[in-house]
Design brief:
The chain is of the alpha+beta class and about 350 residues long. The protein has 9 helices and 20 strands. The chain folds into 3 domains: about 70 residues, Uridine Diphospho-n-acetylenolpyruvylglucosamine Reductase, domain 2 (2-Layer Sandwich); about 110 residues, Uridine Diphospho-n-acetylenolpyruvylglucosamine Reductase, domain 3 (2-Layer Sandwich), CATH 3.30.465.10; about 100 residues, Alpha-Beta Complex (Uridine Diphospho-n-acetylenolpyruvylglucosamine Reductase, domain 1), CATH 3.90.78. The longest helix has 19 residues.
């Protein structure tokens, strides 16, 4: 099996922030066999490797003196189903939103709140993507990975993935495991989550009293499209900062000074704060520094207006972090992965 390894390839088309850095070597793989071959090629040359999926959660800061492996594994298969649910295996290179729409077309539910999140299926477990009160882990059964340390494939259960808020084993041990496919267990009888964000009010405005999962998906798409820029039109990685989680005491203190602060009580007694609200109240919404900026409609999103470098984006993010720290006495954590040389 021969690989088409290219040299000095621009990664601008392969990251949604549209940062123009170059890969020393670049190869696309669409099977486990090709992945093994690419890793062996790099190992024989003592070259570092970077595994690239949809590129929707990356800030690239420099040219990569590595072999960049673009994962393009494709396929969706119904493994089993009964009257209650279906088990679906999805290859890592499938587009996430396209898969969500496919699942809805099959009469399955559970992922409707996660509609229109950019990126591929293989990247979804890394961040434990979530939106509108639903997280990936809620419907994920297992993940098939290639372990680069052992050279073997391994299937990890939901529990073994160690999911947390925008976190997982894959993020904490970055680079060790290559996600090949994900198995989802999706119910046929919908249990809708409507109490987060503007979902319920949007549906009421559309006069939809008894929404279906497809109605919820359409509502989520409409809300996201109104507030979040399409990366194809304005380069971005979606939410740039995690919503900070603080103690109930800290939240109560902040509420005394900022009565309108947006917060969500957590099951463990802590409180999640809306990072977008904090950033907007601090006056950063719409700020632009060269081609790096804060989106005019959603302060949680940093954008590249054309020629911003990854470093310029990070410098703007650092200014925002410092201001939030000084104003609210809390830390904002960056959500995307930062990748250098």
């Amino acid at each position: 099996m021969s690989l088409n390894i290219q040299e000095q390839v621009s990664l601008r088309p392969y990251n949604t922030l549209a940062v123009d850095v170059r890969a020393r070597f670049f190869v696309a793989v669409n099977s486990l066999e090709q992945l093994r071959e690419a890793l062996l090629w790099a190992s024989q040359r003592e070259m570092a490797v970077f595994l690239l999926g949809g590129g929707s959660n990356l800030v690239l800061t420099t040219d990569l003196e590595r072999l960049v492996i673009h994962l393009q594994l494709q396929g969706i298969e119904i493994l089993s189903e009964d009257a209650a649910c279906a088990r679906i295996e999805v290859q890592a290179g499938e587009n996430w939103h396209a898969f969500v729409q496919w699942s809805l077309a099959q009469g399955l539910s559970g992922l409707e709140n996660l509609s229109l999140i950019p990126g591929n299926v293989g990247a979804a477990p890394v961040q434990n993507i979530g939106a509108y009160g639903v997280e990936l882990k809620d419907h994920l059964e297992s993940v098939l990975v290639f372990d680069r340390q052992t050279g073997q494939t391994q299937r990890l259960s939901n529990e073994q993935c160690q999911f947390a808020y925008r976190d997982s084993l894959f993020k904490r041990e970055s680079g060790r495991r290559v996600i090949l496919s994900v198995i989802f267990k999706l119910p046929k009888q919908a249990v809708l989550q409507l109490d987060y964000g503007h979902l319920r009010s949007y549906l009421a405005g559309q006069r939809i009293a008894q929404p279906t999962p497809l109605d919820v998906s359409r509502a989520v798409c409409a809300i996201r499209a109104e507030k979040l820029p399409d990366p194809k039109q304005l380069a971005n990685v979606g939410s740039f900062f995690k919503n900070p989680v603080v103690s109930a005491e800290h939240a109560e203190q902040l509420q005394k000074t900022y009565p309108n602060i947006v917060s969500f009580a957590q099951a463990d007694g802590q409180v999640k704060l809306a990072a977008g609200w904090l950033i907007e109240q601090a006056g950063w919404k719409g700020v632009r520094q060269g081609d790096a900026g804060v989106h005019a409609k959603q302060a949680l999103v940093l954008v590249n207006y054309g020629a911003a470098s990854g470093q310029q984006i990070l410098e703007l993010a650092a200014q925002i972090q410092a201001d939030i720290r000084q104003r609210y006495a809390l830390e904002l954590e960056i959500e995307p992965n930062v990748i250098g040389s």
